What we know:
This is VanW family protein. It holds the Pfam family VanW. This protein is an alpha+beta fold. It has 5 helices and 14 strands. The longest helix is centred in the N-terminal third of the chain and has 21 residues. The protein is globular.
Amino acid sequence: xxxRKLLSQRHPFLYFLAVNARRIKRQLEWVFDGKKYxxxxxxxxxxxxxxxxxxxLLKKLGDNNEQLQINKVxxxxxxxxxxxxxxxxPGETFSFCKLVGLPTKExxxxxxxxxSFGEAKAGIGGGICxxxxxxxxxxxxxxxxxxxxxxxxxxxxxxxxxxxPFGSGATVFYNxxxxxxxxxTEHKFQINLxxxxxCLEGELRIDTELNYAYHVSEKEHxxxxxxxxxxxxxxxxxxxxxxxxxxxxxxxELIMKNFARVTYTPAEFLDTTE
Length: 274
């Protein structure tokens, strides 16, 4: 059965009206919500690294236009320059959308791939979620507190060299789908981003070495078939480990629980029959 389109899909004007209303609401929040947003950048790196990660720039994503992947690299470089070196002081909140701003052609952004209404589409600035995904992975390995995070409600592509657990990312859409975290500690933190020929790389640094670290792992991963539709679920857990006591685990917590529709046929179902 063909799925009914949403009202906003049948009447694009209503969609843009709703988006603009939400963007205005967010801009007012940035002024009046009482948060102190991180805005100071430093070229000198803080002394200690908490976590480093890299993300491949050009990925195989189904049969999508290769040019969109190439354009994405340009988008990533523009957006990352707005974040690289940002210092998050005690009491400050990091806001991805506030730092990066609205991606536009005038700023040099190109058409990249976006996931919207369950489909992969071309959109100006598409692909910059790769930065928020990487930053979120760094942050959950730290004592920073994630205060706003969204993830896609569907899984568009089969795993192809996936390194991070499914559902461990953070999607953004200017400006009402933001990624934010707050520094509720007494330490300063810093995010650094850079590029190699094949990867976007990033690190989270701190001004004082901590005596503990975090280990993040996936549990209960499973594909399900319900009423002829595929779904994917998992849980993401975090252990707090004492560095100087033989890696003793002092706390374990569930930090994410994911359940999403899958738009492809999982490999284990390919050879099965109804």
